[in-house]
What we know:
The chain is of the alpha/beta class. The chain has helices at residues 3-21, 38-52, 58-86, 96-103, 105-122, 124-137, 156-164, 177-186, 189-193, 229-238, 266-275; strands at residues 146-150, 169-174, 197-201, 214-220, 240-252, 278-287, 299-307. It contains eleven helices and seven strands.
Amino acid sequence: MDRTELEKFARPFASQWIAENVPMISGGLTVFQEALADDDREIIDDVFWRFIQNHEDPRAALAGGLESFSTISVDFLRLQGRFMRSGKYRAAANPETLQELYADGERMRGYYLDGLFLTYALWPNHVQMLKFFRDRFLARLPENVSLLEVGVGHGLMASLMLEQLPGSSYHGIDISSHSIDYAMENFSPALKQAGRVKMSCADITDPALKPGHHDAVVCCEVLEHVLEPDVLLEALSRSVEAGSFGFLTTVANMEAEDHVYLFHDADDIRTHITRGGFEIVEDQANGLPGMEDATPRPLNYSAIVQRT
Ligand SMILES: C[S@@+](CC[C@H](N)C(=O)[O-])C[C@H]1O[C@@H](n2cnc3c(N)ncnc32)[C@H](O)[C@@H]1O
């Protein structure tokens, strides 16, 4: 199947697979929305394509990915219910469980990275964050920018950056070798050969780490995974000059097996970002569909920032 055929096949396949196998998670997912805006549909199809592009059997690959996506979605619902009752992230009491997870190939390769990748096609808030990243943040950067990304994960943001900015170079840092290997495997053959990518397996909060100087920084969904987000923000701000752009995302009041730092609301997140050496240029704070009026209020937050 070529790209056009893959894109045509993926969305209907995903909605049918979810309707047949895990109908209880279908409420609110993008592929079940009756009126999908054209630009949403386009980025969702692009994410599905990036997910299956390197697989010989796209049907089997997408079915496996949807199984992983179901695992993290069901788990999220269970964990979020517990968080709403306790007001605490469970992993905060045992932060060593995060290192165990990131070192555990069975979990990282079994469901974590595949599942998280597909949230950018299926969870409405993640689709909005990805559009904001691509259309508002990447559009600001010059083509030959040198980028630092912390928390590479599945590599979706990296592949978008490298393709949209063909003269750019990329340095990714992730504490998990499984994330780095997975991201490298998912790049298109052209990107793998181009020699524009450097990866380092390291903890960004390690004071001995020297990430080097870059023109722009990206850090998506990592601030809530460290005990001291201020230390992470300071490491990011040290790696760029004043005036450089950055893109940051995180959550408030949203549980996951590896969330340890609890942000209370968007203003709380903004305070940390500003204290960490960045000015907020533009941001979005989207309540969780169906829980917009809940207390505490779960939300996804994303910001284009500039080093002060
Ligand atoms: C939730 S995933 C986010 C992946 C991707 N950026 C996204 O937005 O979907 C968190 C990633 O950050 C990495 N990570 C967590 N703590 C880290 C740390 N202290 N230093 C570097 N990477 C870290 C994890 O290994 C994982 O790949």
